[in-house]
Write a structure and sequence with these properties.
With 318 residues, this protein is mainly alpha-helical. It is built from 10 helices and 3 strands, in the order ααααβαβααααβα. Helix 7 runs parallel beside helix 9.
């Protein structure tokens, strides 16, 4: 039963007490707001109905017509406020009861044959840097057997030099991504193969294997941090990309390295850890341009871009 390491690493299953107190406070505010809105609606309906009945009996039809139109608008806004408060309360209740899926369950994909995951990235005259960031974020998803496909929807014959240059850069992005991931992918796959060979001949030393896993986790973190340091940050979106896509996973690898270093080697599923590391950078990035094919639709929308790929032989999973 190798649960000790994962139970230490699994740090996001429940909300902490401070977060729960904050949600309870917000829920009380929502309950109070709903009560105020309901009282307002009841008073509004009573006063409106009384006015309509009184003026109707007096045959003041102009006032009745104006009241119906004007107060209908007010009633609509009161109802909108009630709907907002109800949905807000529902969100708070649902979020406070949320329990994250345990890491031990999520990482079950590394113990057997995981299904192929295809991540499609539609693009139409996007800036190459935006497409590059999107491809990088997709390629770094932690799931084995994944493939990223860039669906280029630009006109295959650009109308001006600017579009031609952008298209050329976009077409080259999959090659750049594959070249970027090639070295770390080979390194971690080699480590997995060597571990499996040691296990096959019965030469495993659990403590040394854990130390090697710690070193590999540090290597993965270092690779991401180097990428973050070399990234060009021109605006807040670049800064967010570097923080969430590069630095945050790097910190996760560092934390996992610390957890491994403090774990009992007998509690660590060595094969799963090596398989997980081997899959971190093993990804295939390709591209597909439907407008290069005469038998595919050239309709200018992203839905058709996706459908053309999914419906073509190229889009069939391997």
């Amino acid at each position: 039963m190798k649960r000790g390491f994962l139970s230490k690493w699994n740090h996001s299953v429940v909300l902490d007490e401070e977060q729960l107190r904050a949600f309870r406070k917000e829920s009380l505010v929502s309950h109070a707001a709903i009560g105020v809105v309901l009282i307002s609606i009841a008073g509004f309906l009573f006063e409106t109905c009384a006015g309509l009945i009184g003026h109707g009996r007096a045959a003041e039809w102009a006032w009745v017509t104006e009241a119906i139109v004007g107060r209908s608008l007010i009633g609509f806004f009161l109802f909108s406020g009630l709907v907002f408060q109800l949905t807000r309360l529902g969100y708070l209740i649902r979020f406070s009861r949320h329990r994250a899926t345990p890491d031990s369950e999520l990482e079950g994909v590394y113990t057997g044959d995981a299904p192929t995951l295809a991540i499609l990235v539609p693009s139409y005259k996007e800036e190459p840097n935006v497409v590059r960031q999107t491809l990088l974020a997709a390629a770094l998803q932690q799931s084995p057997n994944r493939r990223v496909v860039l669906l280029i929807d630009d006109p295959s014959v650009p109308g001006n030099p600017e579009d031609a240059a952008r298209l050329a850069q976009t077409r080259d992005l999959p090659r750049q991504m594959n070249a970027l991931f090639a070295a770390p992918a080979r390194k971690f796959e080699r480590e997995l193969a060597e571990f499996e060979q040691r296990r096959k001949v019965g030469m495993l030393e659990p403590q040394r294997e854990v130390e090697q896993l710690v070193a590999l986790q540090l290597d993965a973190a270092t690779w991401l941090l180097d990428l973050a340091r070399n990234a060009r940050v021109k605006d807040h979106t670049d800064a967010l990309f570097v923080e969430r896509i590069l630095r945050c996973p790097a910190r996760s690898h560092l934390a996992r390295a610390r957890a491994l270093a403090g774990a009992d080697p007998q509690d660590v599923d060595l094969l799963k850890e090596y398989r997980r590391l081997a899959s971190l950078f093993r990804v295939e990035v390709t591209s597909f341009e439907r407008k290069r094919y005469a038998n595919l639709s050239h309709e200018p929308n992203k839905a058709m871009n996706l459908n053309s790929y999914l419906g073509s032989p190229v889009g069939e999973p391997p």
